[in-house]
Amino acid sequence: MEFEVLKRSSVKRNIIIGVFVVFIISAIILNFTSAKYRVSDSVPIINSEINYKVPDLNMVSLYIANEEGTYTEADIIPTSGYTLNTEQSYCGQSNNGEIVKDDTVSIVYENGLINVNGISKKGTKCYLYFNEKTILAVDTILAGKDIQTRNDFSTLATNTTTGVIYETLDWKGTSYYFAGNPTDNWVYFGGFYWRIVRVNGDGSVRLIYNGIDTVNTGTGTMINNGEEIAFNSSYNRSEYVGLKYTIGQQHGQTTDSTILNALQSWYVSSNLDDYVQYIDTNIGFCSDRNTRNNGVWSSTGVTVYYAAFGRLGNNKSPSLACSSNDIIFEPVGLITADEVAFAGGANGNQNQKYFLYNMQAYWAMSPSDITSSYNHADVFLVDSNGNLVWGSVNAPRGVRPVINLKSDVRIEGSGTASDPYTVVGA
């Protein structure tokens, strides 16, 4: 009897112990599991900005363009040298195997970071496409430059201005021009050396001819070894001040001038038309046949002063603005009087210390005047002392062609005479 009681007590004790052990083990397992989930990462879907340093949690797919222009998948966001293709990149959610774009999500790429803003739906994934950053000519020219503004054009620009470039407005936007005596605006293109006059407002680059070497004075800086050519063979009408003109019209463009024919002939004979993919014909050259103070224009019989005469004679206030009816679209032209003034030339002042001085007289393309007393049309030119003056269109002068490189060209080099800028691919 006592044996049976003892036996029952032992069984009861074992059951209690077993339950307690199970409870302890369960508590340990539960605590371990809870701890595991407590330390697990979570990414809440919120209506605010999410910054990614690297792609994570399969929420981002990266694609980088290769040399062939096709995209290959990548694992790391590029930190420099690339731009985000905003037209091709997008975020969206999967719907039956197809991605539905979410136009409310914005994506910004900067300094190797992707900022995604506006995610509000579970399962959103972003597909990011990167293109190699194209460094345009204007980027290379402006890199490291001290950009300044000139306001006093009665004081000649004579200093060595290496590392400095100036800004103003033209009819396309902000233009950056060289002035004084820079040593970093040399270009070698098409078998010739050129000097950069300015970066036009649309990003194209305006060059003036310097010849087959970097000697910056003498007849070799002009075409045909300094051959002098009349601006126009006829001189007794107002129309003859135009690079292109139409008899009876102030702004006509139906007839090529004598000098434009010479420029076109040189352009073809020098094989520059072989580089047509690099030369811009859309920015044009400004003929500017508006009259001073909107005065009366007449073909013959009256004195006509043109706008550049008023700006550059006594006032010394050059401008790169141009009326649309006076822009001449050609692959080759001449420098304008205003561009000479921005570079450092001035009417009535000799300047032998700016980069357009070459010891020779050569044509600009801006009209000056026609007087009833002399009855001959005058156009601006740079004389042999670097002075900005004007002369009769039928008097022969030297010729320095001007061309424009397209805004999307890439250049290499430092711009010095020993290491001139060169056009990639040309």
Task: Give an overview in words.
This protein is α+β, with helices and mostly antiparallel strands and 426 residues long. It folds into 2 domains: 83 residues, no CATH class; 286 residues, no CATH class. The chain is built from 5 helices and 26 strands. The strands form 6 sheets. Strands 10, 11, 12, 13, 14, 15, 24, 25 and 26 form a 9-stranded mixed sheet that branches. Strands 2, 3, 4, 5, 6 and 9 form a 6-stranded mixed sheet that branches. Strands 19-21-22-23 form a 4-stranded antiparallel sheet. Strand 5 and strand 6 form a beta hairpin. The longest helix is centred in the N-terminal third of the chain and has 38 residues. It is elongated. The N terminus is likely disordered.
> Helix proportion of residues, in percent?
10-25%
How many domains, in number, for the residues?
A: 2
- The dominant shape is elongated
- Low-pLDDT parts are 1-9, 27-48, 52-57
Strand tally, please?
A: 26
Main pleated sheet: 9 strands, mixed
Topology:
Elements: H1 2-39, E1 50-52, E2 60-65, E3 71-74, E4 82-84, E5 90-95, E6 98-101, E7 106-110, E8 113-117, E9 125-132, H2 137-142, E10 146-148, E11 164-169, E12 174-177, E13 186-189, E14 192-199, E15 205-211, E16 244-245, E17 255-256, H3 258-269, E18 285-286, E19 304-305, H4 307-312, E20 327-328, H5 337-343, E21 362-370, E22 377-382, E23 388-392, E24 402-405, E25 411-412, E26 421-423
Parallel strand pairs: 2-9, 10-11, 13-26
Antiparallel strand pairs: 1-8, 2-3, 4-9, 5-6, 5-9, 7-8, 11-12, 12-14, 13-14, 14-15, 15-24, 16-17, 18-20, 19-21, 21-22, 22-23, 25-26
